Amino acid sequence: MKFAAIIALALAGYSQSPGQSAYVPSADNLRNREWFRDASFGMFIHWGVYSVLGQGEWVMQQKMMDKETYGRVASFFNPTAFDPQAWVSLAKAAGMKYITITSRHHDGFSMFDTKQSDWSIVKATPYKKDVLKLLAEECQREGIKLFFYYSHLDWWNVDYYPRGWTGQYSGRPDSGNWQRYLSFVDAQLTELLTNYGPVGGIWFDGIWDRKEADWELQKTYALIHSLQSGALVGNNHHLPPKEGEDFQMFEKDLPGQNLGGFSGSATVSSLPLETCETMNNSWGFNITDKKFKTARELIQMLVRAAGHNGNFLLNVGPMPNGEIQPEFVATLKEIGGWMSKYGETIYGTRGGPVPARSWGVTTQKGEKVFAHDLSGETHLLIPNFDKQVRRISILNDGTSVKFEQNDIGIAVQIPEQKIDPTDTILELSL
Length: 430
What we know:
Elements: H1 3-12, H2 27-39, E1 41-45, H3 59-62, H4 67-71, H5 84-93, E2 98-104, H6 121-124, H7 131-142, E3 145-151, H8 178-194, E4 201-205, H9 217-227, E5 232-236, E6 248-251, E7 273-278, H10 295-307, E8 310-316, H11 326-342, E9 350-351, E10 360-365, E11 368-373, E12 379-382, E13 391-394, E14 402-405, E15 410-413, E16 424-429
Parallel strand pairs: 1-2, 1-8, 2-3, 3-4, 4-5, 6-7, 7-8
Antiparallel strand pairs: 9-10, 10-11, 11-16, 12-15, 13-16, 14-15
Helix pairs in contact: 1-9, 5-7, 5-11, 8-9, 10-11
């Protein structure tokens, strides 16, 4: 089918009532939203030609590199140690149910075989293989859903004009064709949604570079849903969700918080939610970043995300040779060990009946309520939630703990020797 015909088909699925969008999620889409909520934990992968320089994914912007200089980096990108089976096995060992990988970041470099540009891993590097195709095939074999991160922002394409507040040093001419650029984006998305099997969804980023521009998001979202109706669309625009989006993400923050300054005016919606976070302080490979978060810190972030009714998308930035650095591997396996024991309090749960407290959060699955004591406190006050509690026990070994429920709440006393420094999980029998 020709691209113009695909666009026409996509728009046919959206009625054009004056002043009103009419996106109606398909049955497949709604099922995938519930699957997404139940999955709870995923792996984020930031990988691109920038990994060669070992200074993160923003290095072209931060070092004020022009296209001629930055373009030379591609000749050094030859990830001969890339092993999709090792990546997917690591994700599964960590307890992750899906993977979201950068198909194209802000530098415009495509990590797949695209006909729209020569600035890609297949055409511009000595490696010349489509890593997304290899990863997609392995994910399908292992039952892991694959999502594609895609940057709206582009520091490379000459048609990305007028430019936003980034990408001012690339040496591009002060001219371009915005409509042609948007057509380029939709053409690449068509490739991703037709050449790589079932896609979990598209994770957009970058429209904050030109907040006032007409990105024609409805047209793009309609295209995605026409090609794969079950694919979930999310956009890291730091705003309330827009028509046509299927999940909402919060960058380095829990839903409803803006401690990192990336959530902007984004209010918590009724869509599936996701928190994304790094294992050190970098998204892309950064050889000098040694500020590694501990397994305990990351497990507690995962638990807090679940308590806020959201998924946890934890990032790795593979090295330029295609391997994931050993510090990340060791920590992910440690997290996986915890998930193998306590995953029932995370997978398939929703935020519990008690909002987050100073001591931790609650999660719930059906009639099961879990209180996660992340503080190490032995005395907790759990607010009442219109249920009579019959018994409270420590999930690890079933030990009953003393409690008293009255009009003020549920006062719980945990034996000191039963405190888990990572997460003391209490199961409340109602």
